[in-house]
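Batch job 17 of 40 flagged for manual review because the log was empty.
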Amino acid sequence: MLVGRDGEREAIGRALAAARSGESSVLALTGDPGIGKTALLDHAADVAVRMRVLRARGIESEAQIPFGSLLELLRPALGLVERLPPPQAAALESALAMRPGPAQERFAVGAATLGLLAALAEEQPVAVLVDDAQWLDHSSAQALLFAARRLVADPIAVVLAVRAGAPSLLDGADLPVLPVTGLTPAATAELLDGVAPAAVARLHLATGGNPLALLELRDRADEPAPAGAPVLVSARIAQAYTARMEGLGDATRAALVLAATSDSRDPALLERAAAALGVDLGALAAAERRGLVALGDGAVAFPHPLARSAVYAAAPPEQRRAAHRALAGALPDRDHDRRAWHLAAAAAGTDEAAAAALEHAGERARRRSAYGDAAAAFERGARLTANGEHRARLLRDAAETAWLAGLAERAVGLLAEARAATADAALRVRIDRLAGEIAVRRGPVMRGHAMLLATAALAEPDAAVAMLADAGCACLYAGEAVEMLATAERAAALAETGVSSRSRFLAGASLGMAQVLGGDAAAGTRSIHAAIALAEEDPALRDDPELLPWLAIGPIFLREAGGGRPLLAHALDAARGRAAVGALPRVLNLIARDEATTDRWARADATYREAIDLARESGQQTELAFGVAGLAWLLARRGHADECRAHAAEAAELSRALGARLPLLWATNALAELELASGAPEHAAERLRGLQSLLHDFAITDVDLSPVPELVDALLRSRRPEEAVAPVAALLAASEAKGQPWSLARALRASGLVEDDFEPRFERALALHARTPDSFEAARTRLAYGERLRRVRERRRAREQLRAALEVFERLDAAPWAERARTELEATGETLRRRDPSAMEALTPQEVRIAHLLAAGRTTREAAAALFLSPKTVEFHLRSVYRKLDIHSRAELAGAVADGHAAG
């Protein structure tokens, strides 16, 4: 019977009612041991009428068993695995040891967990109840958290119970939390019915109303409790259980310790272990009479995890080790992982057999994508071996799997320890390569560059090229143009020595990027074209998961209407299809940058936000910096001042922490464009001059990054024409040398703004814009052209250019630029009606993503798999899209998205 708890019961009732009405809900109950979380979960199970209840419980001694809790939770739903997209089904079946399969990214199992819960909820509302979530194994907790964060419109209620103060993956998860506190004095009196009121008051004071403590201490109600004295409730409860052990015989104590040490309720296992120790399990009857255990169906159950902990902690260390050793010997052959951890717990010092068993356990966990559990096994195995080189190898494996599990700090520490433990040159190459890759992705990026550069000198050619390509990326992030070129030239030299086509692709792409950024830009574009051609001709390159970001980055550098652009879509589709969350933030940032330089700004906004969310979730700080900087730049052009400044400030802060200066350049440019668009040209000019200085200091010569076209505009609008002329000649020369249409069109626009003979320049610029996908830049050129035509009284011709510019600005929702074009048109004498806002502009970023995927022909399930959502959530957002657009079918949706007013 549940006493009191009206508020908690009401909250749980609301969560379950929401699920029964078709809405998702998540609730985390937090509180001290014994506070009543388990009782509340039992209550939830009792009142979950007309719902399918899935339950699991974290067990401290099983916290290293890969996906053990997830298997317990999902077992009733496993018959629906065939409904999942094949990559997700394969990931889940491999994780749960249902079939062998290759290791996947850590979030692939989370996506599959969400899909399976959603499939089960299609048949009946589901209540997911998880007790002691702080003791879930790492991989189960990650998968469950990934799914819980994405529940929106499925009839699923998730209620988790978490011990307050205990570290867990739920820390910082931003889930709705309900603190569970002690009972009220009135509820305490009801619980302790029959106890004298004065004693009830003393117990309530001593325990803070903790129900378990109240029940355990009721027989000691007459003990004095100093007024206001602090009480460690869990310690008091543990002491109460320990007190019950007083006077028990050695046989009973030995049987209790063995039962407390076991992580299985299998009575046959306990009997085999007891026989090995010479322990009589029948002696547990005395412990049952004291309320320490409950015996039934041959199994031994403790009334509370604290009772088990108290028994285990009170035992002498040698007795605990003996129990672990007996359990390891009694386990069946299939329980390799449990045996390994029992052997480890039985070790008093180094133990090679236990180290080997844990190494095998780590390898099995890695194959099942249980990277956090693998890291724990490898690290514990390393502590148990006396062989220094073996220890170093295990520490390196622990670091790699910790990194794959998202435990970056732990990975860095393990790598430092591994390096200090080995003199093996080949192992040091593996250690330093991983350390360098981690530093590139989480900073300081140039430290990663130095590590990779030094390590590449010791590696075989194909591995060296891959390391040098990553080192070049570090330079790109850091804005180190000179060092990037030197690094890329080393990779290119190696690529001439008969390496694989993969290495030739990486070397060519790296060299092209470096040459464009700070060298011979024309040669760089040729190198990128050659690399793209390699990828277009070789399916193996296009299907290599590690190359997905590289497939996307080449077309971004070219900014051409052609130039390998299909590779962008391929990279994104491949990353989504593999549930490759690790690769997605970088790929999405590149896709968003491309969309922001075309006419798909609504999609760019949505894509940037998805990249940012995934980068935060996966701990990719470098990609987070690029995401918030890119979004700030887009928001500036749309006139969203407050949000732009907030993202620019975050980008600047991240850039300083990471040593990544390129996002700082983007953020600075975003603020300059915001001021230029919002009518503060003097401030814009100041920022743009600062950006010029930064580019000069970083030796970045890429004309695409030059702020001169914007600076000329700002100076002219600040009535400083004499300052606007000087930078144009150099810009034109650099653009002509590069030979790419995007940069040359911008340079000609700047020239058209300051030269008397402006018409040929603007006409040539517009012809070049037609060869690029960037409609905004073309519209800015038309705006500048129209402004000049109006000033020489060519009003009719000015209107043609200004109308075309206004149409693009309005379609893109570039509000400040649309207002500028509208003002110019009105100055020509044209009367304008304000455009009604497009319904597409009312869509949320998530709705934009879903609308475009469905309009492109994806099914609801395919869109759900691509976005790591459930089909019900996709349908929920689709209904909102239909309502906002006032449409009723997929065909109308495709028309709305394809229509020019669709804003992306």
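Reviewer: the log was empty due to a logging misconfiguration, but the result itself is present. DSSP finds 46 helices and seven strands in the chain. Unflagging and moving on to job 18.
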